[in-house]
């Protein structure tokens, strides 16, 4: 099977020749180290590093255009003021300074976002290509200082809730453009939780954001592609709600937040493809031998029967990870990924 067939089989809760695997993002510095090069490269170097590791997939987040404001500061299409120092980008000022201004906020046009990376991955490689779009909680929260956003939601501020509905419409359109550009599937990135539970009470999330998420999922499903839902943190309280949506899979399943992937597969594996759960902390601090043991244990637990895609819980391999640990991890995935299918 090729990369695309392998991922498609897992998304359909089926089996393939081996467990499909991959991360959404791979740091340019890490890719260079894996290839034995001194300096970070670009597109072709990342593709070569992914092939070296045996990955099957990539994910692309459409980038908002930036306006240079000097002193390493930029204004993005959302209106956020950003500062870039080296590879680190920080938000200096939110798009909406105070929540009552949400009523006058105007979203950017979806067609100004850069879709060229999606086209390149689709046309110049044989990887399965996911496109990342925000969900209603994350997409709205990104426009405010986060504490202000949470307080506005707790107070059921009408302008903020109306903005969340507009965010859904925007992200459906952005997903349509991503699919048109070549994406095989869509990931809804919607970090609604931290390590002890959801950021807002589950009942409040169900009242405000679940109907909006359902509308977004159903609209994207009409475009004819699979949909994964991503959130970090502990999702136990809302797993039944997510499983009842027309999602094809769930990515994240953070072990450090108490997400027991074996239990999730037992309860929801018939409805959802699962992706993730490998501990990034272990990948950062563990030995290659310990990483191999953990990878084998995870695959033995969740790979049988199909419907699983291997990745770290966060789906991001950053430049600060030890290259030898990353190599050990993906060598173990190749070794055991065929054994437990």
UniProtKB/TrEMBL annotation:
Annotated keywords: Methyltransferase, Transferase
Q: Which GO terms describe its biological process?
A: methylation; porphyrin-containing compound biosynthetic process
Mind telling me which InterPro entries this protein's record contains? Methanogen_methyltrans, UROD/MetE-like_sf, Uroporphyrinogen_deCOase
Query: Which is one GO molecular function term here?
Result: uroporphyrinogen decarboxylase activity
Q: Where is the Uroporphyrinogen decarboxylase (URO-D) domain?
A: 119-336
Question: What domain of life?
Answer: Bacteria
- Report the PANTHER family cross-referenced here: METHYLCOBAMIDE:COM METHYLTRANSFERASE MTBA
**Name of the molecule in the record:** Methylcobalamin:coenzyme M methyltransferase
Q: Give the organism the record lists.
A: Neomoorella humiferrea
